[in-house]
Amino acid sequence: MKHILKHIILLTVSVAPVYLFAQMGEPYEMNINGVNVIVQPSGNEIVEVRTIIKGGVQNYPASKAGIESLSLTALTECGTLKDDKNAFKNKLDKASAQMNGYTEMDYATFRMNCIKSDFETVWQLYTDAMTIPKFDTKEFERIKQDAVTVLRANESNPDYAIRRMAQQLAFAGKDYAKNPQGTIEIVSKLTSEETKKYYQTIFNRNHLLIVIVGEIDKNDLQQKVQSFLAKIPAGKPFTPKKESYAPSANSMKYEEKEFATNYIQGITSAPQPGTPDYDAFILAMRIFYNRHFVEIRSKNGLSYAPATWFSGGLTPYASIYVTTTDPNKYIVIARQLIDKVKKEGFKEEELNNIKTVYVTQTYYQQETNSALAGALASNEVINGNWRRAYTIKDDMKKVTLSDLNRVFNKYIGNITWAYRGDPKKVETKMYTQKELPQMPQEIKPL
């Protein structure tokens, strides 16, 4: 019965996105004043607009990490030259609209979401926020203190701390070592004037991408976007750079912490977005997640929530993560598992199952206007192809078992390990040596 129910659920979820896309009009793109504008008619009464500022951590030096995040928050929290913060918020509330901005590793997003009947009103507020932001000093100090409070909370979170440590080790001296939210020390010193000047340097047409999911007349939309972009300078030509990570040897660094368990994350290489290896690696890492979970938790009880994942940004990388009281046993099992997959490969059944699950989850997650706009934006910025949001099913169908095994062997190699916990519990050599570490007798063999 459970087996039948599982297939009914998968069928229902799989059909839903197909039905959803069928209700939508044909997507199209326009180039207006040098800015690519991607439009998906939604077939519903909700409008989602996203203005993307490309670059992310490439836009600022490490000494100013956090400045882009604050600048995007200030657009709605500090008012505009037309409306102070309260007046601006009141107008948004009257329309029951959402508007906010945030930044990630590869790009920043400033978005609005409203009912179609309120689009005229909200669009004006939206464009005002970007073109005539006030950066009010008093309000800026408030949002800065809020940002510091969040950073302080994050730094006390062991999971957050191990992720930051691993990234700083792997990408030392590179853009991906930066934290888009910054640090307490850096953010505390930023001023409204400095942040405003920074925003003005990145808010230009050469940095922008606009994504709209909504049922808006094409001519009306074109006129609105053209009027909006006419107020924005062209700026210098900008193309986000792509980098690869390929450590030359295994390495490990630790921070001594008095935790009940030990936190470990390893980072290794991964394929570039837009390459033939990319889709195959997505599926390979998802299957490897399942195998890793079974070996580490189910068979050996070494961790409650072991994980592996693929971060497929402009600097792509793969991660292996665990919290465990026995880090030496863990690395033996993990290294042995990697070796086994490389020698024996994955199975056809695993590939077929993961294709179904991945495609279903991807389309299911794109069912709202907001999520679909996010998918279109990320595929355009990261993969250089917004239409990939619609072709993912066919793209994944093309991945073969040979592709899966080839990319795992190609990219899962030397690993940069970060460790936070009791240094007496870990033998560093077991993580850094080239050969497989010796198997303790009490560990169950694979």
UniProtKB/TrEMBL annotation:
List residues of the Peptidase M16 N-terminal domain: 74-176
Could you name the domain of life of the organism this protein comes from?
A: Bacteria
Residue ranges constituting the Peptidase M16 C-terminal domain according to the UniProt record: 189-356
Spell out the InterPro entries in the cross-references. Answer: Metalloenz_LuxS/M16, MPP/UQCRC_Complex, Pept_M16_N, Peptidase_M16_C
Alphabetized GO MF terms: metal ion binding
What name is this protein filed under?
Insulinase family protein
